[in-house]
Amino acid sequence: MILKIRKDLWNALWMNAMALGNVDKIYSSSGRCRPEPSVRWLVNGVLVDEEYEHNTGDVIENRLLWPAIRRADYAAVFTCQAANSHLVPPKEVSLVLDMFLRPLTVEIKKPAETGEGGVLTAERRYEVACESAGSRPPAIVTWFKGKRQLKRITEELRDNLTMSVMSFVPTLDDDGKPITCRAENPNVTTLSMETSWTINVVYPPVVRLRLGSSLAAGDIKEGDDVYFECHVRANPPARKLSWLHDDRPLAHNASARVFHSNQSLVLQKVTRHSSGRYACSALNAEGETVSNELHFRVKYAPSCRSGGVSVVGAARGESVVIVCEVDADPPAAVFKWKFNNSGETLDVAADRYTSNGSASSLKYTPVADLDYGTLSCSASNEVGAQLAPCVFQMVVAGKPHAPRNCTLWNQTAESVEVSCVAGFDGGLPQTFLLEVYHADGSSPRVNLTSEEPSWTIRGLEWDVRFRLIAVAVNSKGRSPPASLDDVLFRDPEKRTATEASLGMSSMLGAAGAGAGAIFALLAGACAVSLRRRRRPRLAKPLPAPLVTQHLALKQPELDDAEPDLIPNNYCEATSAPSLSVSSPARTGPAPLTTPACNGPGASWTWGARCREPADAALGRSASATLRAAADLNVDAIKEKLLDNRIPESCV
Q1: Which of 173, 428, 478, 603 is the most buried if burial means most Cβ atoms within 10 Å?
Q2: Are 154 and 130 in contact (CB under 8 A)?
Q3: How does pLDDT run across 521-533, given as a tens digit for each residue?
Q4: Domain of life here (predicted)?
Q5: Is the pLDDT of residue 650 over 60?
């Protein structure tokens, strides 16, 4: 008996098994056997088919129909058995079913470094694993990001298990893309399985700033309306949008015509101050990003840089250069100068001034009174003409006069305040300078500048004598100095005993002054009584300007005739500024109103203290010696005394 299985049909069975498809028939046949055998099929030892038929040539065949191949049929044993007697064992032939199997599972294992919700951070490297099982032979794993295949992978094969690890760095463009892991049978490409993971990539905002699309950047003028657009791309979405102008925050301000609208900045009626660098910034959970800087330019007509009226002082015949500076964008193209006095307005010839775009210079020399007046200049550029010209007031000018009536007050052990009365400013704005010297020094210890003639001096040494110089300064120079000499700050520890002795001396002085006052009243009573008895005929008074000269000529005669009268020459005429010193504890007497002693430059001092030592002249904390002072109207006093002469008998 010969038993065989048709190999061509078996191959067909095997190929169908690979696809887990249906198997039509498997043929088994036998021949040349007596008695006639029976042919049957067994699968894994289980009888599944025993129907056979006779074919030509004493061939008996059994065709097995296997309706569907399953994964469970893998390695199944198909046995074709022929038997015709119980006396001998049956003849059989067996085949083992081999199969190509598709993967059963494909799984992407997300990296442990992912954030909440499985998010990935842009520009950070991650390793993602994919595991596939069930394929025979083991599957080959392929990675894709979107439609692009990834190559940076490593694989590990174990039986029918494949482990693949892919390393990649997500970018902000990867947000929302799928990561796909595909496992396929290496022998049959149609036997595959895949899975995908849509990645969520978080990143700081990406910000880009641009000028409104309908605007021309090079054609913006004052008064135009403009807007900026801030394009933001962020995950998670930006929760805050800010605007910057020259690196300073630019807030929403309706009164300033600045408006924030979604991701746009609107500026209405822009001015030259709107020019500069603009940027926008966006903030989310991943950080804050500032956009590119946009340089914004606003063109405007010229305007005077200094503003207001500038005073220019010049003496007759003195040449001065007057510079007219303007702000303009683009630079000024044309300048014009005009001169105006109370009589007429004249255009200045173009050849008398020069211009360089932002400034124009005019050389001007006044020679007569009519040359003093107002000079004005104006400019124009492509935007327009200057609305308000730059104005320069020409005045007759010179050096300022010296400060006068300089006084020390509010004295302490540590400081003293100095105040003066300002003199004539010379026709120009003036400032005031106080210099502090050692009594015998030539270099100033302290320089103090002020807009007003008042200063506070602090930190000077004790028991050191100082000299104070006050001057006024304008563009023509410095005034003559006003000097205050022999200023002394006493040591507080050494001053205690002196204060006590000064207190006793003051009491004695007060008692003496009281006795003198009583004596003066008695003398006055005697004078009145004698005057009633004998009124001498007086000469006709001299004119007021001649009083001082008359007294000066008669001075020796008065001294000889009345030895009890002591002349006072404090009211001498002087051109130098006078200085006075007042005690902080007392208020000085009101100045006399006689013009001879109270004209410009005159001042008052303590009459009873003019002969006191320097220590007492400045009170407790400072002392000074007056260089020049006009304290009393002595001429008027002398004239009064001469009219009311007191006889010696009454004294």
Answers
A1: 603
A2: no
A3: 666 665 555 555 5
A4: Eukaryota
A5: no
CA–CA dist 43, 268 (Å, integer): 92
Distance CA 287, CA 202 (A): 11
- Same domain for 384 and 436, yes or no, is no
Phi, psi of 154 (to 5 degrees): -130, 145
Quick check: is 584 in a domain?
Answer: no
* 28: Cβ contacts below 8 Å, ≥ 6 apart: 3, 4, 5, 39, 41, 52, 61, 62, 63, 64, 80, 82, 93
Tens digit of each residue's pLDDT (9 = 90 or more) over 53-108 = 888 777 888 888 887 888 888 889 999 988 888 888 888 899 998 888 889 999 99
With contact defined as beta carbons under 8 Å apart, do 282 and 207 qualify?
yes
Percent of the chain with pLDDT over 90: 42
Listed residue (74, 82, 68, 69) closest to 28, CA to CA: 82
Residues paired with 39 in a beta bridge: 82
Q: Which residues pair with 303 in a beta bridge?
A: 327
23 Cβ contact list (under 8 Å, min separation 6): 12, 13, 16, 17, 65, 66, 67, 69
In a domain, 131, yes or no: yes
**CA atoms of 579 and 591, how far apart (whole Å):** 14
pLDDT of residue 234 exceeding 90, the answer is yes
466-495 residue pLDDT tens: 889 999 999 889 999 998 887 877 766 665
As for how many domains the chain has, the answer is: 5
3-state secondary structure of 13: helix
532 domain residue, yes or no: no
Domain around 333:
300-395
Whole-angstrom distance, CA of residue 400 vs CA of residue 428: 8
Local confidence band at 517 (pLDDT 50, 70, 90 cut-offs):
low
Q: What is the mean pLDDT of residues 528-553?
A: 40
Contacts of 605 (CB under 8 A, 6+ apart): 580, 581, 588, 626, 629, 631
* C-alpha radius of gyration, the chain, whole number: 59
- Report the length, in residues, of the chain: 651
pLDDT exceeds 70 at position 542:
no
For residues 166 and 158, what is the distance between their CA atoms, to the nearest angstrom? 18
CB of 80 within 8 A of CB of 92? yes
Pair type for strands 105-109 and 2-5: unpaired
Q: Are 482 and 420 in contact (CB under 8 A)?
A: yes
CATH number of the domain residue 251 falls in: 2.60.40.10
